[in-house]
Amino acid sequence: MAGLKRRVPMHRLRYFISMVGLFSKSGLLPWYARNPPGWSQLFLGTVCKGDFTHVVATKCQKGQKSQKKPSHLGPLDGSWQERLADVVTPLWRLSYEEQLKVKFEAQKKILQRLESYIQMLNGVNVTTAVPKSESLPCLLHPIIPSPVINGYRNKSTFSVNRGPDGNPKTVGYYLGTWRDGNIVCVRSNNLKNIPEKHSQVAQYYEVFLRQSPLEPCLVFHEGGYWRELIVRTNSQGHTMAIITFHPQKLSQEELHVQKETVKEFFIRGPGAACDLTSLYFQESTMTRCSHQQSPYQLLFGEPYIFEELLSLKIRISPDAFFQINTAGAEMLYRTVGELTGVNSDTILLDICCGTGVIGLSLAQHTSQVLGIELVEQAVEDARWTAAFNGITNSEFHTGPAEKILPGLLKSKEDGQSVVAVVNPARAGLHYKVIQAIRNCRAIRTLVFVSCKLHGESTRNIIELCCPPDSAKKLLGEPFVLQQAVPVDLFPHTPHCELVLLFTR
Question: Whole-model pTM above 0.85?
Answer without folding.
Answer: no
